Amino acid sequence: xxxxxxxxxxxxxxxxxxxxxxxxxxxxxxxxxxxxxxxxxxxxxxxxxxxxxxxxxxxxxxxxxxxxxxxxxxxxxxxxxxxxxxxxxxxxxxxxxxxxxxxxxxxxxxxxxxxxxxxxxxxxxxxxxxxxxxxxxxxxxxxxxxxxxxxxxxxxxxxxxxxxxx
Length: 166
Known about the structure:
Largest sheet: 3 strands, antiparallel
Order of helices and strands: HHEEEHHHEEEH
Shape: elongated
InterPro entries: Znf_FYVE_PHD
Distance between the termini: 48 Å
Strand order of the largest sheet: 1-2-3
Oligomer: single chain
Radius of gyration: 18 Å
Number of helices: 6
CATH architecture of the largest domain: 2-Layer Sandwich
CATH topology of the largest domain: Herpes Virus-1
Number of domains: 2
Strand content: 5-15%
């Protein structure tokens, strides 16, 4: 059995709730240098479609598609869930949505950061497999019950089906 191509923290952090994970997440940025290689496929930054992204914690570079393929492979082949993060150092990354929110924030000195309670914003429970299970009541009174392995998939489901006011 060959060693995993990722830091084991990515599997460990799967058990964290989003509000516990958020303080640990770091942004991902595009590197300015063009001679860097992806840490997974070892290809150079060739075209804009497969741009490299750099971990702001360890400065390792990866194609986001390679990171996605690694997560899918580990789940389907090894039954191991991985958080969205750096395969080299194991630091969770902010999702592109959260990164945009971070950039859009105004820096107000003296203002206390509000803590987001995802349990009240999104209605879910965690099952024995640590999946997110939607607990929104449908118009007919039954629970929605949609299950998602990853937070991003659950949040997308919630926005698509239950946030019609947006």
